[in-house]
Design the sequence.
C-alpha cells in the first residue's frame, strides 16, 4: 500500500517545551482531521523507534476520566519516551470512542451506566460500529518522519497489524499496562475478552 506524502501546506513544525522536556511538535492535516506527532531526542532514529500511536480520548486524556485508561497511557508513554531519550508519540484525532465520535461515545456511557452494557454492546445497541479507527494517518506521519521500524507501545493487536500491513515494521510490542480501578475494570475486561487486548495486569480482578 502506498500512502500519500503530505503536502507542505499540510505540515507545520516547531519546538514545544513541556513539563517533561522539549519536544519537536509536528502538526499534520489529513482527511479532515489535524493530528500531531511529538518527537523527542536530538537525532531521532529511524529503526526500532519507541512509538506510541495514541487515539484521542478527550475525557481520559484531558479530563483524567477513570472509566478508561487512555489518560494514564498517554502520560506513561510520554514518560517512557523521555526516559529512553528518544521516541515519538503520534496523537490521532477523530478516534473518540474508537471512531464513533464524542457525542456518540457519551451516549454509550449512558447505556453503560444505566443498563450495565459493556463498551462494545453499548455501541452496537446504538447501531454504531465497535471500532472504525483509521490508522493510515499514523502510517503517513511515521513515514513523513522517516521511521522504518518501531517498538510499539500498545496492548492492541489490531494496531500492530494496521502498521505492519502498511509497511511500518513492528520489531517489538511494548506493553502499556495501567493498574485497573473500580471504574475501569469492566471496560478493561471487555477489551481483553472481546477485543483481544493483552492485559495480563487485570488477571484476578473482579468486575463490578
Ligand atoms: Zn479513553
Sequence:
Amino acid at each position: 500500500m502506498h500512502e500519500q506524502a503530505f503536502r507542505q501546506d499540510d505540515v507545520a513544525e516547531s519546538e514545544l517545551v513541556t513539563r517533561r522536556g522539549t519536544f519537536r511538535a509536528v502538526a499534520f492535516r489529513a482527511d479532515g482531521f489535524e493530528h500531531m506527532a511529538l518527537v523527542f531526542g536530538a537525532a531521532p532514529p529511524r529503526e526500532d523507534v519507541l512509538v506510541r500511536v495514541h487515539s484521542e480520548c478527550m475525557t481520559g486524556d484531558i479530563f483524567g476520566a477513570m472509566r478508561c485508561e487512555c489518560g494514564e497511557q498517554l502520560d506513561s508513554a510520554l514518560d517512557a519516551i523521555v526516559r529512553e531519550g528518544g521516541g515519538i508519540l503520534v496523537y490521532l484525532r477523530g478516534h473518540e470512542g474508537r471512531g464513533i465520535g464524542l457525542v456518540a461515545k457519551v451516549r454509550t456511557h449512558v447505556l453503560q451506566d444505566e443498563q450495565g452494557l459493556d463498551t462494545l454492546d453499548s455501541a452496537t445497541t446504538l447501531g454504531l460500529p465497535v471500532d472504525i479507527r483509521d490508522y493510515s494517518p499514523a502510517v503517513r506521519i511515521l513515514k513523513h518522519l522517516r521511521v522504518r521500524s518501531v517498538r510499539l507501545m500498545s496492548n492492541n493487536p489490531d494496531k500492530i497489524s494496521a502498521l505492519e500491513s502498511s509497511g511500518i515494521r513492528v520489531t517489538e510490542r511494548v506493553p502499556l499496562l495501567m493498574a485497573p480501578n473500580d471504574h475501569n475494570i469492566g471496560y478493561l475486561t471487555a477489551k481483553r475478552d472481546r477485543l483481544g487486548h493483552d492485559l495480563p495486569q487485570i488477571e484476578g480482578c473482579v468486575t463490578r
Q: What stands out?
A: The radius of gyration is 17 Å. The first strand starts at residue 11 and ends at 18. Residues 57, 60, 68, 70 surround zinc ion (CB under 6 Å).
